[in-house]
Design brief:
The chain is of the alpha+beta class. The chain contains three helices and five strands. The protein has two domains: 1-51, no CATH class; 94-182, Sporulation related repeat (Alpha-Beta Plaits), CATH 3.30.70.1070. The relative contact order is 0.13.
């Protein structure tokens, strides 16, 4: 304990000397550093042979002047809630040609415009209304087919050969069908 106190005091003195020397060196070069130096009270550096220890002084942290902010409670989405019914005209319990998905309805409408020359009947639906799709997207689709292969053949006839451009998805009201897809590249 005594050796530690002497060593710590020595290190403080050396560090203080380095900082003051650096400040004096910079100020003698004519640069105003905007730093003020104050003298700290001296600390005794004599070794004590006493074996008793003193508990460190404790301080009470300051009490905040304002009440802590609280966030309003967040209601998690219902996990077993049925998705809303699909809009009229959306082919359910059938395969469709998926031509893309977008974050916004405006982006989806742009994709419809982009594919209108090969898919003039392309439509948009919010995927949250179709249980077999991942919710939260505006999806662009066309057609209604009895098999995934028929939908893939439609993709190929439109000139789309990769999953990034077109794939077959099954539209149903069952979440167990989620992820039922086929891809033109077979992957």
């Amino acid at each position: 304990m005594t050796r530690h106190r002497v060593f710590t005091t020595t290190v403080r003195s050396v560090l203080l000397g380095v900082v003051v020397t650096g400040l004096v060196g910079c100020s003698s070069s004519g640069k105003n550093l905007g730093v003020s130096v104050r003298t700290l009270p001296a600390v005794a550096t004599t070794a004590s042979t006493s074996t008793s220890t003193t508990a460190p002084a404790t301080t009470t942290p300051p009490v905040p002047q304002t009440a802590p902010q609280t966030n309003p409670p967040v209601t998690p989405p219902a996990t077993n809630a049925a998705p809303p019914s699909p809009p009229d005209g959306v082919p359910m319990n059938s395969w469709v040609v998926m031509l893309g998905a977008a974050n916004t309805q405006a982006q989806a409408q742009q994709r419809v415009s982009d594919v209108s020359n090969v898919a003039p009947d392309a439509s948009i639906v919010n995927s949250s209304s179709i249980a077999s799709l991942n919710p939260g997207w505006w999806v662009i689709y066309t057609g209604s087919f009895s098999s995934g292969q028929d939908a893939i053949n439609a993709c190929l006839s439109m000139g789309f050969t990769t999953r990034h451009d077109c794939y077959a998805a099954y539209f149903s009201e069952n979440t167990s069908d989620r992820g039922t897809r086929m891809y033109p590249d077979g992957n």
